[in-house]
């Protein structure tokens, strides 16, 4: 059956809808529904991720390779022996210790900058205690393609399984004698990635 190419106007409408999806899921995440990160990841994939068989919205609009993407991640220092979670901070408060997505608030002295897509998408943003490395691409595709965003795989990659199920980053919350692993670094990191992407698209003024 013949196919009819979508117009630029239709693609821009798809992008407006995807932005709305991101904003709604981000609002739900910020209200405490942190597993909305899976829907955030799926929408991020639609907007930016290209494969041999599918083309991202930004590529179809002809802007992905020329626009800047906000990089708010604190840079990884290989000489630092501690785990690295460059997109998110850690709020310490006994049993309430948890990760947090800083959004526009910088973590420490690092200043956000804009990067071209390959550098942004492939930058290492998490290094766990086992020295497994994760980029934005790794986190988004794991959540979207394998861990419930658009699909559930019967088995997960070992490194991602350690990160998301077994606290391989290693932070422990202590409340008296009780110790609780601080989980969900991958979810908070994807929330921050969504913020970066929304900020980057808004800066382009294409809608």
Please characterize this protein's 3D structure.
The chain has a 3-stranded antiparallel β-sheet with strand order 2-6-7. By secondary structure, the protein is an alpha+beta fold. The longest helix has 23 residues, at 8-30. The model has no long low-confidence stretch (mean pLDDT 94). The protein starts with 7 loop residues before the first helix and ends with a helix. It has one domain (8-204). Helix 2 packs across helix 7 (185-204). It is globular. The chain contains 7 helices and 9 strands.
What is the alpha-carbon Rg in Å? 18 Å
Average pLDDT, rounded to a whole number, is 94
Determine the strand fraction and express it as a percent band: 5-15%
Structural class: alpha+beta
Number of strands: 9
Instruction: State the end-to-end CA separation.
Output: 32 Å
Main-sheet strand order equals: 2-6-7
Largest sheet: number of strands, sense, barrel closure = 3 strands, antiparallel
**Order of secondary-structure elements:** HHHEEEEEHEEHHEEH
Number of separate domains: 1
Helix content: 40-55%
How many distinct helices? 7
Give the CA-based shape: globular
Low-confidence stretches: none
Short description:
It contains 7 helices and 9 strands; from the N terminus they run αααβββββαββααββα.
């Amino acid at each position: 059956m013949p196919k009819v190419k979508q117009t630029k106007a239709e693609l821009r409408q798809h992008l407006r809808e995807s932005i709305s999806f991101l904003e709604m899921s981000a609002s739900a995440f910020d209200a405490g529904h942190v597993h909305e990160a899976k829907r955030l990841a799926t929408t991020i994939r639609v907007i930016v991720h290209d494969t041999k068989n599918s083309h991202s919205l930004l590529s179809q609009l002809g802007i992905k390779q020329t626009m800047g993407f906000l990089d708010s991640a604190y840079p990884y220092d290989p000489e630092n022996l501690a785990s690295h979670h460059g997109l998110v901070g850690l709020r310490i408060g006994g049993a309430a210790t948890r990760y947090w997505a800083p959004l526009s608030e910088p973590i420490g002295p690092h200043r956000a900058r804009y990067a071209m897509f390959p550098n942004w998408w492939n930058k290492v943003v998490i290094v766990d205690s086992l020295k497994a490395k994760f980029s934005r691409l790794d986190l988004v595709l794991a959540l979207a393609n394998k861990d419930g965003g658009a699909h559930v795989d019967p088995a997960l990659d070992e490194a991602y399984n350690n990160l998301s199920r077994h606290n391989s980053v290693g932070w422990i919350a202590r409340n008296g004698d009780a110790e609780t692993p601080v989980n969900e670094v991958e979810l908070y990191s994807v929330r921050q990635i969504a913020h970066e992407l929304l900020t980057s698209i808004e800066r382009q003024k294409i809608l």
